[in-house]
């Protein structure tokens, strides 16, 4: 809030008279916050990123910091691991959430909970956060999908939503969108004839056996055909980028995925997930971690810097999330086990105030001492930034009520 002399005397007088207009104003402030994130780029570090070797380092406790050393960053008072020197220069854009905790300690369950805010149930599949954004913020006039997953194979994420709200999977950023052009042995006339025949068969089938899943499949197929003939396909070809950007992001799958994510966000895709795999370091963590960290550091830092330089960071929320953290103690095999009790995630752009660290963990890295943040809270913050109504209730086909982040509460303090 900005204060002038008139405000100062008004608030001071109010306090002397027994009420506080300043407190009232601050309580109302969340309703006035701008939800700036038109796009979300969600970096998923799969396997459990060690907070103690990345963004939640305990610099004063060498016993648990292992081979990680703390370095200063561009944000006053914030130090991170020396394995992330490029990100250290971008921390003035970043809000660290050091007090994350989860109730899931296994990979599959933790990953599901991280993406949906709900624990797995055999009776239902919940929509991922990207599907919620796709459903309520997607533009049906666009040929590009609203939800894209990079370094994914066949993951939809739509849950009980219609399939059209699921993710378009891109197996490898450097390969672009595969199988998106007509086969060389099928000319346009033959292709159109086959589409007409398929349409006729679908209509005949629908008259006899109308079913929501059939309609969803037909709609998805129609969207795919429409995309095949669109100039928007060029956005998937990162080879169109200048060499300086290809080099800046890094010649590896993750870096190229971040570059493709920026291109997609620039083209209006609402939710893009970029996955970085294989962070489950139970043994010999410092054998693989430095190389993986270097790739994550380069790609993520380049993404934030590039978005900032293009004037896109304020309208694009960058998220780094992982399913849980790693143990403060190194194992006999010099690795770290699963640790759901306290770990670190981060947010940048999209209306978030950078250069801050939220939450406090004990000196030994074991317990959260201040501002515990649950996975639903974290996801509610992302949803709020993206302009979703976190209290809006959606009913599943079975008649059960759900909200975008379960019972999570947005962290308004970060905006």
UniProtKB/TrEMBL annotation:
Domain of life: Bacteria
Organism: Lentisphaera profundi
SUPFAM superfamilies membership: Alkaline phosphatase-like (SSF53649)
Protein name: DUF1501 domain-containing protein
Family matches, as InterPro entries: Alkaline_phosphatase_core_sf, DUF1501
